[in-house]
Amino acid sequence: MDPPRRCFRTKDAVTFNRQGDEVPGFPTIGYHPFIDAFNGLLATGYIDIIPGERPSAKEGTTAPATELWATPKLIDLAALYGVFLADYERHFISKPRPSQVARPVILKAGSKRKGWDKVSGASMRLDKADLRVMALSAQVQRLNAYFATVNIGNAKHEGFARIFNLGDTTGAGLDKGGRLYSIGGGYQSMDKKKRPFITLNGSRTVEIDISGSHLTILHALAGKPLPVGDPYAGVGFNRDVIKIWVAQTLGHDKFHRGWSPDNNKRYRKDDSSRSLGKDYPIKAVHEAVCAAFPLIVGWEDSKIRWGELQYIESEALLDTLTKLAFEYNIPALPVHDSIIVAVEHHEIAKRVFSECFESKIGCLPTLKSKQLQ
């Protein structure tokens, strides 16, 4: 809704609920009822679509990825019945947050790139009877059951799924990626400016994040832990630019010769006259970062990649959420490398977050609290 964007729904029959995937309290929606409604809406002009493609689990093949949009005809029809975009929410009752979800653990194939564009990897089948899949699913469903009773204000959340990556190249080991995602985007896809207004059980919240999470983990794995403190400070350039360079580099397996369009757009923000490449030549930033962190020099030959870094980070986050929920009865919403907690639980959450990170990684993280309102 803000900004307006198309709804996405793959039409692969395999992605619809199957026998055994039912969520208690909600009907199973199969492929045939969906496709009948879809084709009818399309034929009558109530929706339009943008067909697309994404890589499938089988190397060299693609699968459909369709985006949908309500047409003015559908909006006008709704208005005839008194349903207007401005107040659509009063016509619909939000479904209760489920205590379990159909697919708590998801394995995806590796993403494909066309230039700077990234196409997400296809979802792959998992053996639900596999002991590791069962254990990981139980962890996620336990958190889903806990959060089903938490009052999350000014944000949407319909349950968690833990998504693992690179299944087509590393097999179903479930040890790459592994972050917890709010199904459908939820609060994690909110504008950062709106995130401070999230409430938990009626309380104002604060967000606690790890400064330089992947950079910290990389150094710890190499036996060269970074000192506690902001790792991006003192490198010689704007810290936000250093942060962008590190994220762009550690998210790939090579050094880049230029800034990505997305990073340049992020840098420009509301000032279209700014240019990341002109203001901060990437070669100069590269040299400054490598001088500050010599370990980065060997990144292209490193056996460690973003998948391992993200997996270790996700394990620390999961331990933190679990401990806070079931030892302290404190709900904490994850946002990749950060957590959102009620203001009154700030100090306890920060301590537990630090302890869990150190337990998994072997060094203390630098935690930063922000967005106190």
Helix content: 25-40%
Note the gap between the termini. 24 Å
Please state the structural category: alpha+beta
How many beta-strand segments? 17
Q: Roughly what is the average pLDDT, rounded to an integer? A: 88
Cα-atom radius of gyration: 22 Å
Low-confidence stretches: 19-26
Tell me the overall shape.
globular
Largest sheet: 4 strands, mixed
Q: Main sheet: which strands, in order across?
A: 9-6-11-12
Encode the helix/strand succession as letters: EHEEEEHEEEEHEEHEEEHHHHHHEEHE
Helices, by number, come to: 11
User: Proportion of β residues?
Assistant: 15-25%
Protein described:
The strands form six sheets. This protein has a four-stranded mixed β-sheet. Mean pLDDT is 88; it is low at 19-26. Helices cover 34% and strands 17% of the residues. Helix 6 packs across helix 9 and helix 10 (306-327) crosses helix 11. Strand 3 and strand 4 form a beta hairpin. The protein is α+β, with helices and mostly antiparallel strands. The chain is globular, with a radius of gyration of 22 Å.
Q: How would you summarize this macromolecular structure in one to three sentences?
A:
The chain has 373 residues and is an alpha+beta fold. The protein has helices at residues 31-43, 72-80, 131-147, 167-170, 213-221, 239-250, 261-268, 276-279, 282-292, 306-327, 346-361, and strands at residues 7-9, 47-50, 53-55, 62-64, 66-70, 105-108, 112-114, 117-119, 123-124, 152-153, 160-164, 177-182, 199-200, 205-210, 333-334, 338-342, 367-370.
Features:
single chain, alpha+beta, four-stranded mixed beta sheet, 11 helices, 17 strands
